TrEMBL record:
Its main location: membrane. PANTHER family: INTEGRAL MEMBRANE PROTEIN-RELATED, PILUS ASSEMBLY PROTEIN. The chain crosses the membrane at residues 6-26, 106-127, 133-152, 283-302. It comes from the Bacteria. Keywords: Cell membrane, Membrane, Transmembrane, Transmembrane helix. It is a multi-pass membrane protein. It comes from Streptomyces reniochalinae. The lineage of its organism: Bacteria, Bacillati, Actinomycetota, Actinomycetes, Kitasatosporales. It is found in: Cell membrane. One of its GO terms (cellular component) is plasma membrane. The keyword Transmembrane applies. InterPro entries: T2SS_GspF_dom. Residues 173-299 form the Type II secretion system protein GspF domain. This is Type II secretion system protein.
Length: 308
């Protein structure tokens, strides 16, 4: 395969990629399914008060372009049926917008397309790499890598915030049990326990309880819906147990106390397991350091013995 064929193949691949990108971001005539999906998307935005649509109108410059790009990609995901519920749940935990996240992914992927050839040009200037296919593969590799980096960051940060939320839920259950022991009813106890702190976890619980009072939904059902959105099983289990024993104050206190104790034991076990893993890592590092020190001591003697 000569250089002319490789150049033509490279141009065809790049052109195909650009065509697919433009086709995805600027689709042609909409069909009936796409129109219904767009109506559903607008209804969902109006119901959840997502800031993406207003941001596209109020923002200027790069922020406006990013907001419009995110809205287009969000509509594309909706038309294709790509729900990505786990990722949406992680974004809900971090209180980040879905459309802004999609725009960030695409922009980073586009930056990766230029970063790969730029890296190749630097290597080419110092004498490494001559094949015309190398920049193409580098562009595709870095585009895919940069496109996936926001997912990794979101999953890592969401896992950390879920651990914090589980700790707060354990303390929250104890506070609710204490309020019930003081003679308050279950709705008042749930509300009072959520007002002891301004942290993000109790703020989410407090806002959920306030919305439940406005909409007429039971507070434990609202907590269960919050657990579904955030992917926290403890809140879903709490909702189910409260729905069963909501009318009996003594059973509620006993259930909440036992559940809080179980969560504390589980958290303690996780902390001990994490500490054990860190101890093992430190042990391996110390063994490697000792091995290097032994090589440093033995090397001069071995050189003299073997007369190297």
């Amino acid at each position: 395969m000569n250089a002319l064929t490789l150049t033509a193949l490279t141009g065809a691949l790049v052109g195909l990629g650009l065509f697919l990108l433009v086709r995805a971001l600027a689709p042609g005539k909409k069909g009936a399914v796409a129109s219904v999906a767009e109506i559903d998307a607008l209804r969902a935005r109006a119901a959840t008060h997502q800031p993406g649509s207003t941001a596209a109108q109020d923002a200027k410059g790069f922020a406006a372009v990013r907001a419009r790009l995110g809205a287009r990609i969000g509509d594309l995901y909706l038309r294709q049926g790509w729900e990505l519920r786990s990722l949406r749940s992680d974004l809900d935990v971090l209180e980040r917008g879905w459309e802004n996240f999609l725009a960030t992914k695409v922009l980073l992927g586009a930056a990766g397309l230029f970063f790969g050839p730029f890296l190749f040009s630097v290597a080419w200037l110092i004498g490494f790499g001559r094949s015309p296919l190398i920049p193409v593969w580098l562009a595709l590799f870095f585009a895919a890598l940069f496109f996936m980096l926001p997912d990794l960051e979101v999953r890592r940060d969401a896992a950390a915030k879920r651990r914090d939320l589980r700790r707060v839920v354990g303390a929250y259950l104890d506070l609710v049990a204490m309020n019930l022991a003081g003679g308050r009813g279950l709705p008042e106890a749930l509300k009072a326990a959520s007002e002891v702190s301004e942290g993000w976890a109790l703020r989410r619980i407090r806002d959920t309880l306030a919305d439940a009072r406005i909409t007429g939904q039971s507070q434990w059902a609202a907590l269960g819906d919050l657990g579904v959105r955030l992917g926290v099983d403890e809140l879903k289990d709490l909702s189910a147990s409260l729905a069963l024993v909501a009318d009996d104050g003594a059973k509620v206190r006993a259930s909440l106390s036992s559940r809080a104790e179980t969560m504390r034991h589980r958290e303690l076990a996780e902390i001990e397991g994490s500490a054990g893993e860190k101890s093992q890592s430190m042990l391996v590092a110390q063994l490697m350091l000792c091995a290097g020190f032994l090589v440093f001591l033995i090397y001069p003697a071995a050189m003299r013995v073997f007369q190297i």
